[in-house]
Amino acid sequence: MQIGDMEISEQAAIAPYAYTQAGGPADYLAQPKSIDQVKTLVAWAKEQQLPVHVFGRLSNLVVRDGGLRGLVIILSELNQVDRINDQVIRAQAGSDLIWVANLALRYHLSGLEWGAGIPGTVGGAVFMNAGAYGGQADMVVTGVIALMPDGQVQDFDQDQLDFAYRDSVFQHNQGVILSADFTLTPADPAQIQAQMDENNYLRASKQPLNLPSNGSVFKRPVGHFAGKLIMDTGLQGQQVGGVAISKKHAGFMVNVDHGTGNDYEDLIAQTQQAVKQAYGVQLSPEVRILGER
Ligand SMILES: Cc1cc2nc3c(=O)[nH]c(=O)nc-3n(C[C@H](O)[C@H](O)[C@H](O)COP(=O)(O)OP(=O)(O)OC[C@H]3O[C@@H](n4cnc5c(N)ncnc54)[C@H](O)[C@@H]3O)c2cc1C
Question: What's the pLDDT tens digit per position in 2-24?
């Protein structure tokens, strides 16, 4: 189907785009290359009264087997990055965070070392307030441009982003993040590179990066580590359908044998129940679970 100058797929498989390699189909799927195309798509969906889902690299997502109603917009082709002054990089929402972190290194700018191993986009990192190894989006994201449900493009200053642990204003206002400004600090590139290398070494030594996953499935409960609670409950290796709790990192759920979105959801629920029973701690998912069963 054609909308404006874009080809839209119908009943489109989501699994090939998803980091978990799981998930039911989308009614409609589009991959815009420009902000004007994003605007056209959102206006079309509004006209048709269809829900809109905006994704980046689908690296923090469980889509249930029944798939997603409405329009899925995948932004990975909206990926221009500009250096707007000595210290500020403006990256469109679909840019890979790893790519932006490496550009920062090339410009001798520090502040994105934590992002050098996170496989999502800039939009996903802002939406989730992603972070690792002592760094987090809220430490360097100083402004965002977003398309709001009324069709207006709005500038958000840092104090309007309402960042909190794995949370931002965009989890509450249905805005489509179009770009983010990263304000960084000049530094010795050898030091930036060394920090990135150390982070990525730690990541590779602790995480099951050879298998499809969503990274850490649960948020860090206050006073605990989700992975340790899951390990101590004896759940490592537990499997539902084709999805298992990683034996390398208990906080990860890996797709070991054609696992589905429903397998992920069921294993998440089983894990929550078992940990609650053993330790009285309620784990809450960091991954976003969407779609119909
Ligand atoms: C191996 C592995 C390691 C990981 N390590 C980490 C880590 O160390 N730290 C960490 O924080 N996360 C980590 N993650 C999780 C994930 O990569 C991050 O949450 C990432 O920021 C998600 O980006 P994404 O583009 O894939 O978002 P998606 O999964 O595509 O989307 C996630 C959510 O953001 C919303 N969203 C995405 N883009 C936009 C946009 N432009 N506008 C509005 N909403 C949007 C979606 O609707 C969805 O609700 C890891 C994942 C994997 C697979």
Answer: 998 999 999 999 999 999 999 99
pLDDT-derived band at 135, boundaries 50, 70, 90: very high
Transcribe 123-135 into DSSP letters.
HHHHHHT-EETTE
- SS3 for 116? helix
Q: 125 CB less than 6 Å from ligand 1? A: yes
Which residue's alpha carbon is at the smallest distance from atom 37 of ligand 1? 124
Rounded to whole angstroms, the Cα distance separating 257 from 260 reads: 9
Q: What is the pTM of this model?
A: 0.98
Atom 50 in ligand 1: which residue has the minimum CA distance?
215
Compute the chain's Rg from CA coordinates: 19
62-91 per-position pLDDT tens digit: 999 999 999 999 999 999 999 999 999 999
- Please give the distance, rounded to the nearest whole angstrom, from the Cα atom of residue 137 to the centre of ligand 1: 12
Residue 292, C-beta contacts closer than 8 angstroms, at least 6 positions apart: 24, 64, 66, 67, 68, 69
Neighbours of 281 (CB within 10 A): 17
